[in-house]
Write a structure and sequence with these properties.
This protein is an alpha+beta fold. The protein contains 9 helices and 5 strands; from the N terminus they run αββαβαααααααββ. The chain has a domain at about 70-175: ComB-like (putative 2-phosphosulfolactate phosphatase). Helix 7 packs across helix 9 (about 165-170).
């Protein structure tokens, strides 16, 4: 379905990004590396993305009133957007790995929850054990995010595929991006 949607756009107006198991999908322009998605490469283009886990998760929650994509580098920006909405309920959903637990997603969930607890001017109630565990994980690893990413199953998988050192460093940076990727229509996320 992704290729069918992408093919409607001229080659010079679109990019297809995709990975399966951390490897770039054959026939796609870019793979899984955040370092390849530069302003110079993507400026003025529609991006069509398919990932092993992330796109499935986003599809499951595409009917949410507000939907944002977060990683550690844009945690503060997304958290501040969430705070500004003053929503009564917030769902933090990690993609996991093929239906299983993901250490790096839990770390990010804990990082977001920690920021919300610390910076909201209203009470934040954590309603499930999964997020309590994510907070504990964040408190354990917040001073060595890079190591946590590398020891995760997915980190080890990426390491076995090649040199992803710079990707690990990029993904472990905290609060360095002011971009809030938000769903603007079902299935379409735009950075703001």
């Amino acid at each position: 379905m992704l290729k069918e949607s992408a093919i409607k756009w001229h080659d010079d107006q679109r990019l297809m990004l995709g990975e399966r198991g951390g490897k770039k999908i054959d026939g796609f322009d870019l793979g899984n590396s955040p370092l390849s998605v530069t302003k110079k490469v993507v400026n003025g283009k529609r991006l069509f993305m398919s990932t092993t886990n992330g796109t499935k998760s986003l599809k499951k929650v595409q009917n949410a009133k507000h939907l944002f994509a977060m990683a550690l580098p844009n945690r503060r920006a997304v958290a501040e957007k969430i705070i500004s909405l003053k929503s009564e309920n917030v769902l933090i959903l990690g993609s996991g790995w093929e239906g299983s637990y993901s250490l790096e997603d839990s770390l990010a969930a804990g990082a977001l929850a920690s920021y919300l607890e610390t910076n909201c001017d209203f009470e934040v109630n954590i309603l499930n054990d999964e997020l309590q565990a994510a907070l504990a994980l964040w408190n354990l690893w917040k001073n060595d995010i890079l190591k946590c990413l590398k020891i995760s199953t997915h980190g080890k998988r990426l390491t076995s595929l090649g040199n992803y050192e710079e990707d690990f460093k990029c993904c472990s940076e905290l609060d360095c991006l002011d971009i809030v990727p938000a769903q603007v229509e079902r299935g379409v996320i735009r950075a703001s």
